[in-house]
Amino acid sequence: MITLYGFGAGFGLPEISPFVTKTEVQLKMAGLAYRKEKAMPPASPKGQLPYIEDEAERIADSTFIRAHIEGKYGFDFDAPLSLQARAQAWAFERMIEHHVYWALVGARWVDSENFAKGPAHFFDAVPEHLREKLREDAQFRVAENYLLSGLGRHAPDEDIDLAVRSLFALSVQLGDKPYLMGDTPCGTDATAFGALAGILTPYFASPLRERAEQFGNLTTYVDRMMLQYYPDFAWAPQQQAA
After folding, report:
1. Rounded Cα–Cα distance for residues 151 and 156 (Å)
2. Contact 6, 15 (CB under 8 A)
3. In this structure, are residues 151 and 99 in contact, taking their beta carbons and an 8 Å threshold?
4. CATH assignment of 1-77?
5. Confidence category of residue 236, pLDDT binned at 50, 70, 90
6. Is the per-residue pLDDT at 241 higher than 80?
7. Where does the record place the Thioredoxin-like fold domain (predicted)?
8. pLDDT value at position 152?
9. What residues form DSSP beta bridges with 179?
């Protein structure tokens, strides 16, 4: 059986990491049995989560895990799509992972209140005399990566405006369809769902979340995906109570 290593539930989400969420949803899409274990990034072959163990193989990075599933198990996540639609799906996935994701990072890690409420607790088990220094170092490294991503070079309202342009593109692509590319979910839906749920979770308040909630088709899309792939997770009541 495949073992998926991730962070686990938290922040009002069934899985903290949008990339682990992506892989978990794709495992569900492929109908593959798996078990899930908690891990931290240093345990991964690439120093990041998710990674999987499948018999004697250890594969890290969600995109390479998808390739492993397709290659070993013969599952085509984009089976209904034309060649052009496959190319479009890949382009949207790159936009989500290299733009929308960094907006999520900014809202969760760079915002001081959200950092204290969320990521700072990753270090709760660290000895008290080291805890605050490790928190500061981690936040600094993430903020530095946010700067390198490009979004962090702008004023707070400007980086949100740029992120919203990508959300607008996703909203237009989705339209009134149930899934991004049509009537059936494809691999990129797992990517979009992970990032959008991370933005929309009621656990964090942010201008990014406020702007994202204005796209009604994206919020109902996340609700639909959550019900389909995490039916036992209490997501809809949280949204209604927010």
Report:
1. 9
2. yes
3. yes
4. 3.40.30.10
5. low
6. no
7. 18-114
8. 76
9. 182
Rounded to the nearest 5°, which phi and psi values hold at 204?
A: -115, 135
The reported pTM is 0.92
| Domain 81-242: CATH architecture, name and number where available | Up-down Bundle (1.20)
Same fold? 1-77, 81-242: no
Give residue 63's identity as a one-letter amino acid code. T
Residues with Cβ within 8 Å of 223's Cβ and at least 6 positions away in sequence, in order, are 235, 236, 239
Domain ranges of the chain: 1-77, 81-242
Residue-wise pLDDT tens digits, 105-129: 999 989 889 999 999 998 888 899 9
Asked whether 24 and 15 are in contact (CB, 8 A), the reply is yes
Amino acid, single-letter form, for residue 182: G
Greater pLDDT, 36 or 109 = 36
> What phi and psi values does residue 215 have, to the nearest 5 degrees?
-95, 90
Dihedral sign of CA atoms 101, 60, 5, 222 in order: positive
Q: Quick one: how far is CA 115 from the chain centroid?
A: 17
- 154, with CB counted inside 10 A (0-12, 13-18, 19+), is middle
- Cβ atoms of 33 and 2 closer than 8 Å: yes
The structure tokens listed for 13 are: 């989400």
